[in-house]
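Session log. Operator J.P. requested a structure for one protein chain; no other inputs attached. Running the standard single-chain path with token output.
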Amino acid sequence: LPPALMWSLLAPRRVPTVPVKNLTGSSPCRFEPPCPGITGILMSAAGLPVCLTRPPKLVLHPPPVSKSEIQSIPGICHTCPSTPGPPPPCRKTTKKQAKKGKTPEEVLKKYLQKVRHPPDEDCTICMERLSAPSGYKGPQPAVKPDLVGKLVKCGHAFHLHCLVAMYNNGNKDGSLQCPTCKTIYGVKTGTQPPGKMEYHIIPHALPGHSDCKTIRIIYNIPPGVQGPEHPNPGKSFTARGFPRHCYLPDSEKGRKVLKLLLVAWDRRLIFAIGTSSTTGESDTVIWNEIHHKTEFGSNLTGHGYPDINYLDNVLAELAAQGITEESLAQEKD
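Structure written below.
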């Protein structure tokens, strides 16, 4: 190209303002894009359209909130007695131990019916036929390997030998979860390390929930040493990213989710110790299959709002852990 033409293409120039109609179409507004780069200059000089957009912004936290703007949630006012002064509503957990005194066989007996004539199908634990002895090869339970039992609610049948072995390899908390359909028998508890859960209302609305304020949950779990219920007893564990802030709309359904999350917290089901799926770090505190929203004003990572299905999805996840409205009555008892 001649030098003069090349210079005219590369020289900085004023980008004209572009008239753009607003969404309602009532009146035009003015959009002035920022100065484009070399590609935009060349395209503009050639008469080609140039589209300039700014990337959406990640909004993790709400605007600053003063202490006087924070409100407790009516009907959910359990507080931490060890906190000096007027404490925020919160729950503390400790290492709840499983109930002693009952053997695995005694625990499972109340959930089972013996089957005298096993069906012609596989045991989904050992994958051997129910009409044949159990194929489990680990530490042998004190149960005959050819006995078969049927779970009373869901009706799925297994070798008693296999069920006892499965129970011994779990949390041994007095509960049992059907390996076929995930029906829970008894009260399921987890292995969440000790920590604190705070919850209150802040005077800001979430995207998609402009008609109500917001419930903010703050989880705080410190690092520590793994107990006998954890993957590596006696080894230290890390706790990255705490305190973790999570958000719910202060609506009727949002408060229902909070109440059930409190039950999940008391049962040590919200967190666990394992390997992080994002960093690959082992022996660290991780989320435990109950999804939370950690973005306040955006949804760029999928952990924010708007999300019209979130409350229903998290209720289903809680139900999969055995936590439903019936659980609230159980906790009161």
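Operator note: The radius of gyration is 29 Å.
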